[in-house]
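All the exercises in this workshop are built on plain-text protein records. A record pairs a protein's sequence with a compact description of its fold. The structure tokens are whole numbers drawn from a learned vocabulary of backbone shapes. Once this layout is familiar, the rest of the handout is easier to follow. An example says more than a description, so a record of this kind follows.
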Amino acid sequence: RIKAESLVHTQSTVNKYVSRTTAKPDTYFEVARLSESHERVVVFRSATVKESVCPTYDLAVIELNALRSSSECNLVITVFKLKRRKCKAIGSFEASVETLISACRTNAKVSGFEGCEDAEVSSPGLQLRRGGGESAGKIVVLEASIEHPSDTRESQFLSGADNDGGAPGELALSDDSLCPPVMPGTFIRRPAFRDYTELNIDLCVAIDFTSSNGDPRLPGSLHYSRDGMLNDYEESILAIGSVIEKYSQTKMFPCWGFGAKFNGVVRHIFQCGPDANSLGTDGILNSYRSVFETDLIMSGPTELQSVIKAAAARAKRSHGSASQNYSVLLCLTDGIVDDLEAIQRLVRSYQKLQLPLSLVVVGIGRADFSAFHAWSDSPAQSRGNFKFLEFRHHQFEPHELSRNAIAQLPLDIVENFVGRNIMPSLNR
């Protein structure tokens, strides 16, 4: 299993810093062996990772005899980007199986798998290079080993008949048919998102009612809505919730608020609506609107620890079982939060504990969300199961809003299930 770091994916930014405003590429990697005539024979292609210059890819399980040749450095690993329905190589490097295993051990000692900035690996062969020799980024080997066939637990993995390396299903909205073909029958892949046919997602929604949103009765404030027109909060709930609810067996979701004052006391979590759970996305919207019929006073500060812990408590119910249950907390807020470091520690700790929970935060309005962006753009090992995006960047494209919000979920879900040894049923 590998991850790429600091991918330089445009010619204009070679050896320069790629800013946050630069479009991040959709990438995948290929493993090819070099024949005795030095021709490349592709034996594996990974699933596509969406919009990241520091992507972590799924585990690649490849039959060893598909890699062997007489060359000492007989593997070529190439990272490609997908753009406008075309595939283009970002960079590549050559290495043997032994080199990859050694790089994995070195990386474990040096970085502890914590963040791109700490993952300096001594092996020069793991530098991605363009055709002219310029640096195009770095590859960090997270896992590498050779297993005897009797130890691979083949009964828990599906055969690689479709040869797509485990591309996510509908949630990922990817189009792997655009990628180059792969040699059939050369590897056994681990489960993919679409294999979990009994998946049940528990959606939790948390909404910001702090005073910085403005008076909801006044036009221009973030909670203002009239004549059937949806405000930004409602648009976000509808776009993202309507997709996630398709993966729920009950469609009963909690809707919480935070940052409002009731009876003179600031509540960092409170129930929206008359019932603990709302039926589907429409029910969430009705519960949200009902809050404005109460005597709430929009207040502050903006803190998310309480709603995150509440979502974690729901996720914990599934932690010790083999069920395909997973929780997603969709949090909508109008600005940076006052307990950012605390919630970062929470999210990272939950990932280490393999709690089946992901946090998706949508920024509403035009506040400074740079801290959220920095967190969301950080390496997977230090980020946790977290995704951030701004509503205004997708406000006229609800499909793009939902696609970007949930792009990471299939990987989060599969990583969690495989890590907890939850495999899809083979009797389908």
